Records
---
Amino acid sequence: MKLDVLFLVLEVVLVRNIPPDPDESVSELVEHFFLVNHPDNYLSHQVVYNANKLAKLVKKKKKLQNWLVYYQNKVERTSERPQIKTGFLGLCGNKVDAIDHHNTEIDKLSKEIALERDNVSNDPKSIMPAAFVSFKTRWGAAVCAQTQQTRNPTMWLTEWAPEPRDIYWSNLAIPYVSLTVRRLIMAVAFFFLTFFFMIPIAIVQGLASIDGIQKRAPWLNPLIEIPFIKSFIQGFLPGIALKLFLIFLPTILMIMSKFEGFGSISSLERRAASRYYLFNFVNIFLGNILTGTAFEQLDSFIHQAANEYPITIGTAIPLKASFFITYIMVDGWAGIAAEVLMLKPLIIYHLKNFFLVKTEKDREEAMDPGSIGFNTGEPRIQLYFLLGLVYASVTPTVLPFIIVFFGLAYVVFRHQIINVYNQEYESGAAFWPDVHFRVIIALIVSQIVLMGLLTTKKAASSTPFLIVLPVLTIWFHIYCKGRFEPAFVRYPLQEAMMKDTLERATDPNFNLKAYLQNAYVHPVFKASLFDEDEDEEVMSLKLETESLTVPTKRQSRRNTPLPSRISGASSPSLPDHGIRNHPEP
């Protein structure tokens, strides 16, 4: 059963692909539609604006205000008015007083922000055919989110709204029709990225071997013959070269996911994690097994009969056991050690502190540890799980290294999650179906490898009996997908009614409308709640932490959500940015 950890998400639905109407605005159309089709449960709605340009202006103003604070602090320390050049990166142009220049630029930006905010609020072209619709009960929201709204299945598409902290606002402004095209483009791009990446990986792996160095740099032969260097090249250099070559891959995959147009951070990370795992499976697991240094085995693999595939795989996998042992030590063990030391954030912090930090606010942001990063950590762990299952029956000497890795990973990540990382969002266990699917893939691959190994050991008579293993595994996956996956993507009406009944009995006077009025407003509009002269745009995302979530275990002033559900809580009033409230009975 899906965990009800966010009462707010379970009462808000995201509606997309709203059909245009020449006589009504999007806001009026949404209100009329839900008053007619959900008259007993509809509460209010907030339309989605294309406020990306306004968000850029607000970000630019924040940056200028931060520079202004830096120069004001500098005047207090030195009693001298700082001078800057107005040209490119401050390297050329006329010299001006830094404080006066930034005050002038901030005033200009404030006027531009006010003008752009009015344009976004009043221009019908800035309103996207989408809206966050809130309901009085979980039951009403569940019925709306999990049913088809009209005869035309391409209009009035409903889904559960992400938690406010989880929304990726930039992508909500993308027209729904273009999402399919974007995803097709990224699917083709990922295909070429995955399979053509084998070429540079194979080249790097070849250069990182003793034979490759002797062939391309014979003048290094005396150095290679030194026992310590020879052992290092044979043992660790290929794994280190592969790790360095893939260092920018997670960033590339996240950029691709953002281009696809997913509307929540959790969806972006899930898509990036799936592609990261597929990339690792093809390029690290299959690539190192089948390609070697010059694709000789890959060529023979392509031109041989299909019934010989298990034999080729069963022969090649044991030969790569030593490489994967070193890879586990270089990437796994060393990665866990770096996680304990927070080595990468520490280096980044010192680089930021030396080059970028100008004020205390910069230092606080530089010290923020961020979230755990499911898009990179989870696929790596799944890869080691795959290696453990595959080599359990092929080369058991790999298993101790895998077991040590998982033992260290459990201890370290448990500590990091509780004491270090911040909870960026709550997805309600949405990652688990993908994790389960990758476990099934690992099981099937290990069974195929076992069949191939037994075939090479003159035990072909037992292979037909082993065919039943992947068949049963696939059947088990289909069973689990049909039986349990709905619990992670749907919300049972019985559970919704029970929660609603309990809530009415325990807290009948809770003012849900007052909270929802501001919860799903774009952050740049929330900035209007504060004084324009103050640097309060930075509070936009922090306001979203007021969503009523399970508190994080680590008490953090910046990231821990506020206490949940204060009866009668009120919120500041906002200008009417497409917000329509249906009077409660």
---
Amino acid sequence: MTVATEAVTLAAQATPTQTAQATDLVHAAAPAASLVQSVDWLAIAPPVVAAVAALLILVADLFVREGRKHLLGLGAVLGLVVALAALLPLRGAGHRTFCLVGDTTVCSYTADQFALVIQALVLVGALVTALLSLTLAKDDKNLPAGEYWFLLLSSAAGATLLPAARDLATLVVALEVASLPAFALVGLRRGDKRSSEAALKFFLSSVTATAVMLLGVSFVYAATGSLHLTEIATRLDNVPAQLDTLAQAGVALTLVGFAFKTAAAPFHFWVPDTYVGAPLPVAAYLSVTGKAVGFSGLILVTVVAFPSYADVWGPALAVLAALTMTVGNVAALRQNATRAHSAVRLLAWSSVGQAGYLLVPIAAAAYTSDAQIGSTVAYALMYAVVNLGAFAVAALVSRTNPGGRLTDYRGLYARSPLAALALGFFLLCLAGLPPGIIGLVAKVTVFSSAVDAGLAWLAVVMAVNVVIALYYYLRWTALLFRPAPQEAPEQAPATATGETPHPVRAPRRLPAPLGTAIVLTLVAAVALSGYPQLILRFVTGSLFQ
């Protein structure tokens, strides 16, 4: 007879002595239900590897000589590659850890299909950013290398943790671990007033968003008594009438907090100045990884935690989607091609418009099923590849044209045919035009999700915005193949005989990491256009399995 069985038998006796014995046996059986849990280290390996790599680089920075700081960047790239490799053993089976005692279905960390896809997106985005940053860290003496790589890897660790979080506490902590280093990355360049201003604006807006979100989380906890997303979903079905208003307010405030993170209008005001003031690789990182973090968090709280209040967040997200895509595309349309940093500003406003498209399937999930979010995941994968590629080409052009004007791209095909063809292909993917098939397919899937959910008005708004976006994407593409304006040649110094040699402009050599980033993103975009089934398989079925 086991200890627990003996306790139950003695508890059936009515005498005080036997009751005391039963109590002692229950305490003896308590260690069997210990709160000490085993940790699934394989499940949490990706964020742990990124975090450990960040700490190692921070310590190594103290001992590496100034002339060998580039080794820190190579270490960061290696750490991200190892973190990506740690995702491979997790395929095909859901790994859970940090679960409630006695209920292994309620966990704080779940490495399901959704988490693995977003983690792969985040790590690939961080890896391409690291490749772009290798050249920047070498050329820019105002950028402290050790701190830069530590902050980049720390932010990547938080961003990798977030899609696997399954309770609100872990979700908020992961979001802040991803965001706080990003503030410092934006303003890390010493002596740059634009960079400091961008970091301050980014910081203030994000802190406001976090405060609003925490208020919403506290309301949700007060109404449900739980922080686990699946438990919240169950308890919101039976919220007492006197707590219903509190629960609705909590849902609304939590959505507002994530709307800041996703740069959804009218909470998008920080995006253009932040992208312009930040180092170009950091702007690329924010445009892809920052969006992946915001949208994965938004999906988790709406589809997993708040399905009972779909009538609250569904219409709200549909309106936000329409407003965001319209504001972003109209602002991008109005960019002056001769204005300084107009290229990055156009990419910034384009990212706001793309955020509107990404919101559409999430809003549609309120009216049909969570299977609609697969369209958001597929679109995010397409957007990540082509937008990182566009920023990589922008980084190449900025080496010879630091003004960053759109007019600087005129005649790029004559100067660098591969870069021009790559950028042209990326822009056509963003526009959804052949040969950028993957962009067209991704837009069709998002459009179909709105139609299937009965949101015909939102589908019409999206169609109008796609047409608007065609103009500025095609205008930029056309500039790449136009003849470059005639420039006064730089005169070389006269020789000893008094003759002036023929003027020659020495081209700047393409750095290997920058060229690698362009080639990798171009190959990925072409492969996805040739075989879109690689990401379309996420469109059907639920990802939370």
